[in-house]
């Protein structure tokens, strides 16, 4: 764990103030604020947001292989998120929405090609 740096920082923060019991509990949790289990899903939401922003991109410009990878990754990791300890609802949600956003983009691409009679 990086030479014990994170636990030392956590202990220093915990001892610096008389924290509310709920906050103290969250800091000490297995998936608390000083763990990768808390922060990684929050940063992964950027992929989901970017994919939803890409809904404004014309359907013919959507990369099917990229969206297939985003979708499959999201659904596979959603399953994984239900099996690991500590459980993180945020990890499950971000991966599920990642899968859904990729699937929606693939559907947009397929519908575009069906309407225009074009296939790659």
Q: What would you say this structure looks like, in words?
A:
This protein is mostly helical and 120 residues long. It has two domains: 1-34, no CATH class; 38-120. It contains five helices and no strands. It is elongated.
Q: What's a concise summary of this model?
A:
By secondary structure, the protein is mainly alpha-helical. Helix content is 71%, strand content 0%.
SSE layout:
Elements: H1 5-15, H2 21-28, H3 36-53, H4 64-83, H5 89-116
User: Main sheet?
Assistant: none
Q: What is the CA-atom radius of gyration, in angstroms?
A: 20 Å
Low-confidence stretches: none
- How many domain modules? 2
Give, in order, the helices and strands: HHHHH
Spatial shape: elongated
């Amino acid at each position: 764990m990086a030479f014990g740096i994170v636990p030392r920082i956590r202990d220093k923060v915990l001892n610096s103030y008389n924290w509310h019991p709920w906050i103290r509990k969250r800091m000490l949790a297995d998936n608390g604020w000083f763990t990768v289990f808390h922060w990684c899903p929050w940063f992964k939401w950027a992929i989901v947001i970017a994919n939803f922003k890409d809904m404004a991109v014309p359907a013919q410009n959507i990369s099917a292989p990229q969206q297939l990878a985003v979708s499959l990754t999201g659904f596979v990791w959603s399953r994984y998120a239900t099996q690991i300890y500590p459980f993180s609802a945020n990890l499950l949600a971000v991966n599920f929405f990642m899968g859904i956003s990729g699937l929606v983009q693939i559907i947009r691409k397929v519908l575009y090609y069906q309407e225009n009679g074009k296939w790659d």
